[in-house]
Protein backbone atom coordinates (compact mmCIF):
# COMPACT_ATOMS: atom_id res chain seq x y z
CA UNK A 1 0.00 0.00 0.00
CA UNK A 2 1.32 3.42 -0.92
CA UNK A 3 0.53 6.21 1.52
CA UNK A 4 1.29 9.82 2.07
CA UNK A 5 3.73 10.45 4.92
CA UNK A 6 1.07 12.05 7.16
CA UNK A 7 -1.48 9.76 8.79
CA UNK A 8 -4.49 11.60 10.20
CA UNK A 9 -7.54 10.16 11.94
CA UNK A 10 -10.89 10.44 10.16
CA UNK A 11 -13.16 13.27 11.21
CA UNK A 12 -16.42 11.48 10.36
CA UNK A 13 -17.84 7.98 10.08
CA UNK A 14 -17.81 6.62 6.56
CA UNK A 15 -20.94 4.98 5.19
CA UNK A 16 -20.36 1.85 3.12
CA UNK A 17 -22.19 2.31 -0.18
CA UNK A 18 -23.87 -0.78 -1.59
CA UNK A 19 -25.77 -1.39 -4.80
CA UNK A 20 -22.86 -0.37 -7.05
CA UNK A 21 -22.61 3.35 -6.28
CA UNK A 22 -20.57 5.07 -8.99
CA UNK A 23 -19.01 8.46 -9.56
CA UNK A 24 -17.18 10.19 -12.37
CA UNK A 25 -13.66 11.37 -11.60
CA UNK A 26 -11.26 13.58 -13.53
CA UNK A 27 -8.01 15.41 -12.81
CA UNK A 28 -8.82 19.12 -12.70
CA UNK A 29 -5.55 20.63 -11.40
CA UNK A 30 -1.86 19.64 -11.33
CA UNK A 31 0.68 21.72 -9.41
CA UNK A 32 -1.65 24.74 -9.40
CA UNK A 33 -2.23 24.59 -13.16
CA UNK A 34 -5.63 23.77 -14.63
CA UNK A 35 -5.93 20.33 -16.21
CA UNK A 36 -8.71 19.11 -18.46
CA UNK A 37 -8.69 15.32 -18.34
CA UNK A 38 -11.61 13.23 -19.46
CA UNK A 39 -13.91 11.80 -16.80
CA UNK A 40 -13.77 8.13 -15.90
CA UNK A 41 -16.37 6.10 -14.00
CA UNK A 42 -15.20 4.72 -10.64
CA UNK A 43 -16.82 2.46 -8.06
CA UNK A 44 -17.49 4.05 -4.66
CA UNK A 45 -16.83 1.86 -1.62
CA UNK A 46 -17.64 4.32 1.18
CA UNK A 47 -18.09 8.01 1.82
CA UNK A 48 -18.15 10.56 4.62
CA UNK A 49 -18.60 14.34 4.61
CA UNK A 50 -14.80 14.70 4.44
CA UNK A 51 -13.70 11.94 2.07
CA UNK A 52 -14.32 8.69 0.25
CA UNK A 53 -12.83 5.39 -0.81
CA UNK A 54 -13.08 4.38 -4.46
CA UNK A 55 -11.85 1.79 -6.94
CA UNK A 56 -10.56 2.36 -10.46
CA UNK A 57 -8.44 0.78 -13.16
CA UNK A 58 -6.56 4.11 -13.37
CA UNK A 59 -3.41 4.79 -11.32
CA UNK A 60 -3.69 8.23 -9.71
CA UNK A 61 -0.74 9.71 -7.81
CA UNK A 62 -0.80 10.00 -4.02
CA UNK A 63 -0.17 13.73 -3.87
CA UNK A 64 -1.79 16.97 -2.78
CA UNK A 65 -0.52 18.57 -5.98
CA UNK A 66 -3.09 16.58 -8.02
CA UNK A 67 -6.66 17.78 -7.50
CA UNK A 68 -9.44 15.41 -8.53
CA UNK A 69 -13.02 16.35 -9.30
CA UNK A 70 -15.77 13.87 -8.38
CA UNK A 71 -19.30 13.99 -9.79
CA UNK A 72 -21.44 11.93 -7.42
CA UNK A 73 -25.17 11.22 -7.37
CA UNK A 74 -26.70 9.78 -4.19
CA UNK A 75 -30.38 9.22 -4.91
CA UNK A 76 -31.77 12.75 -5.51
CA UNK A 77 -28.58 14.49 -4.28
CA UNK A 78 -25.87 15.53 -6.75
CA UNK A 79 -22.40 16.72 -5.79
CA UNK A 80 -19.36 18.04 -7.60
CA UNK A 81 -16.51 17.62 -5.08
CA UNK A 82 -12.80 18.39 -5.16
CA UNK A 83 -10.22 16.32 -3.33
CA UNK A 84 -6.84 14.64 -3.42
CA UNK A 85 -5.63 11.05 -3.01
CA UNK A 86 -4.13 10.34 0.42
CA UNK A 87 -3.44 6.61 -0.06
CA UNK A 88 -3.52 3.96 -2.79
CA UNK A 89 -3.28 0.18 -2.83
CA UNK A 90 -3.40 -2.42 -5.58
CA UNK A 91 -6.17 -5.05 -5.38
CA UNK A 92 -6.28 -7.61 -8.18
CA UNK A 93 -6.41 -5.62 -11.45
CA UNK A 94 -7.63 -2.41 -9.79
CA UNK A 95 -6.41 0.35 -7.53
CA UNK A 96 -8.28 1.31 -4.38
CA UNK A 97 -7.91 4.88 -3.12
CA UNK A 98 -8.61 6.97 -0.07
CA UNK A 99 -9.47 10.54 -0.95
CA UNK A 100 -9.86 13.64 1.22
CA UNK A 101 -12.20 16.44 0.09
CA UNK A 102 -11.26 20.11 0.05
CA UNK A 103 -13.09 21.50 3.13
CA UNK A 104 -16.33 23.39 2.56
CA UNK A 105 -18.78 23.62 5.49
CA UNK A 106 -21.91 24.08 3.35
CA UNK A 107 -21.12 21.11 1.12
CA UNK A 108 -20.12 19.00 4.13
CA UNK A 109 -23.52 19.60 5.76
CA UNK A 110 -25.31 18.66 2.53
CA UNK A 111 -23.27 15.45 2.29
CA UNK A 112 -24.32 14.57 5.87
CA UNK A 113 -27.98 14.89 4.82
CA UNK A 114 -27.45 12.89 1.62
CA UNK A 115 -25.59 10.10 3.44
CA UNK A 116 -28.27 9.87 6.11
CA UNK A 117 -30.92 9.59 3.37
CA UNK A 118 -28.82 6.94 1.60
CA UNK A 119 -28.39 5.00 4.86
CA UNK A 120 -32.16 5.09 5.40
CA UNK A 121 -32.74 3.83 1.85
CA UNK A 122 -30.16 1.02 2.13
CA UNK A 123 -31.38 -0.14 5.57
CA UNK A 124 -34.95 1.13 6.05
CA UNK A 125 -35.67 -0.98 9.15
CA UNK A 126 -32.52 0.01 11.06
CA UNK A 127 -33.98 3.11 12.73
CA UNK A 128 -31.60 2.81 15.68
CA UNK A 129 -28.57 2.93 13.37
CA UNK A 130 -30.01 5.97 11.56
CA UNK A 131 -30.47 7.76 14.89
CA UNK A 132 -26.97 6.84 16.07
CA UNK A 133 -25.41 8.12 12.82
CA UNK A 134 -27.45 11.33 13.08
CA UNK A 135 -26.37 11.94 16.68
CA UNK A 136 -22.68 11.18 16.04
CA UNK A 137 -22.51 13.24 12.86
CA UNK A 138 -24.37 16.29 14.12
CA UNK A 139 -22.38 16.22 17.37
CA UNK A 140 -19.18 16.33 15.31
CA UNK A 141 -20.58 19.17 13.16
CA UNK A 142 -21.45 21.15 16.32
CA UNK A 143 -17.90 20.68 17.64
CA UNK A 144 -16.42 21.89 14.35
CA UNK A 145 -18.76 24.92 14.31
CA UNK A 146 -17.69 25.85 17.86
CA UNK A 147 -14.04 25.62 16.85
CA UNK A 148 -14.69 27.79 13.80
CA UNK A 149 -16.33 30.49 15.93
CA UNK A 150 -13.51 30.51 18.48
CA UNK A 151 -11.02 30.80 15.66
Can you characterise this structure?
By secondary structure, the chain is of the alpha+beta class. The protein has a single domain (15-122), classed as Beta Barrel (Thrombin, subunit H), CATH 2.40.10.220. It is 28% helix and 41% strand. It contains two helices and nine strands, in the order E-E-E-E-E-E-E-E-E-H-H. The protein has helices at 105-122, 127-150, and strands at residues 2-3, 15-16, 22-30, 33-34, 40-48, 51-56, 66-74, 77-91, 94-101. It has a six-stranded antiparallel beta barrel with strand order 3-5-6-9-8-7. Helix 1 (105-122) packs antiparallel against helix 2. The longest helix is centred in the C-terminal third of the chain and has 24 residues, at 127-150. The termini are far apart. Residues 142-151 have low confidence and may be disordered.
Tell me, what is the CATH class? Mainly Beta
Radius of gyration over alpha carbons?
Answer: 16 Å
> What is the mean pLDDT?
81
CATH superfamily: predicted glycosyltransferase like domains
What structural class results from the helix and strand content?
Answer: alpha+beta
How much of the sequence is in beta strands? 35-45%
- Termini gap: 36 Å
Number of helices: 2
The CATH topology assignment is: Thrombin, subunit H
CATH architecture: Beta Barrel
Q: Could you give the order of strands across the largest sheet?
A: 3-5-6-9-8-7
Give the count of structural domains.
Answer: 1
Order of helices and strands: EEEEEEEEEHH
What ranges have pLDDT less than 50 throughout 5 or more consecutive residues?
A: 142-151
Tally of strands:
9
* Biggest beta-sheet profile: 6 strands, antiparallel, barrel
- Net shape: globular
GO molecular function, one term: cyclic-di-GMP binding
InterPro entries: PilZ_domain
Domain PilZ: 28-107
Protein name: PilZ domain-containing protein
Amino acid sequence: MEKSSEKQPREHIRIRLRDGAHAEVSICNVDGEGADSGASVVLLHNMSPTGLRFQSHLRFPVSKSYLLQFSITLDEWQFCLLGHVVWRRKEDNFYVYGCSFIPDDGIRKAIVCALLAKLQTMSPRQVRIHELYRKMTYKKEAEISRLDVKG
